[in-house]
Amino acid sequence: MKFNSQEEYGLRLLLRIGKNNSPNGLTIPELSEMEGLTEANAAKILRILRLANFIESSRGQTGGYKLSRPANEILVGDILTALGGKLYESSFCELHAGVENICTNSIDCSIRSLWKTIQTMLDGVLKKISLQDLLGNEQQVELLVTNLTDELEQKKANHYT
Questions:
Q1: DSSP of 28-55, one letter per residue?
Q2: Burial code of 105-121, b = ≥16 C-beta within 10 A, e = fewer?
Q3: Is 80 exposed, middle or buried (0-12, 13-18, 19+ CB in 10 A)?
Q4: For all residues of the chain together, what is the average pLDDT?
Q5: Which of 71, 9, 77, 70 minimizes the C-alpha distance to 43?
Q6: Residue 62 has pLDDT above 80, yes or no
Q7: Which residue has better confidence, 61 or 83?
Q8: SS3 108
Q9: Cβ within 8 Å of residue 31, ≥6 positions away
Q10: Cys staple from 54: which of 9, 28, 43, 49, with CB 3.0 to 4.6 Å?
Q11: In whole angstroms, what is the distance from residue 121 CA to residue 144 CA?
């Protein structure tokens, strides 16, 4: 399983914008230089983020990109979904049927169960982590994620007892 570059760069661009204190926001040239991206690639990703209502832009000499709402209201799971979709979605089986119209394992599929479970676990963590959380340092984020995964495992253990 891999996250694509659009998801990585999109998160990084949002973090740059979230850390910025300028009332005007940051421009595409500024953001692309800060993140080592081409202006075209930064513009493409910023457009996706703007259309998904994570950022807003203003034109002109004092224009730039700013968060459209507070960083604590922007969830990482929503960002990743907007930039690249989910690992597993209900249409997954239809898209991976091979040369058949319907997957040959559509009635009883252990693989589907695996993907659904992994997606549920990912969603459980990613819906609890906001952009604000990622504005912390690496150690703070690691502690947060560890606590969230421990919490999910405890809930799962309680469910089965």
A1: HHHHHHHHT--HHHHHHHHHHHHHTTSE
A2: eeeeeeebeebbeeeee
A3: buried
A4: 85
A5: 9
A6: no
A7: 83
A8: coil
A9: 13, 16, 17, 37, 42, 46, 65
A10: 49
A11: 15
Residue 149: inside a domain: no
Using the predicted structure, report yes or no on whether residue 161 has a pLDDT greater than 60. yes
> Distances in Å between the alpha carbon of 22 and those of 10, 16, 40, 137?
20, 11, 23, 21
Would residue 76 count as lying in a domain?
yes
Cα 93-98-100 angle, rounded to 5 deg: 90
Q: How many domains is the chain built from?
A: 1
The residue segments making up the domain with residue 39 are: 5-85
Residue (of 1, 7, 10, 14) closest to 135 by Cα position: 14
Task: Evaluate whether residue 92 is within a structural domain.
Answer: no
CATH number at residue 27: 1.10.10.10
Residue type, 44: K
Residue type, 136: G
The count of other CB atoms within 10 Å of the CB of residue 37 is 19
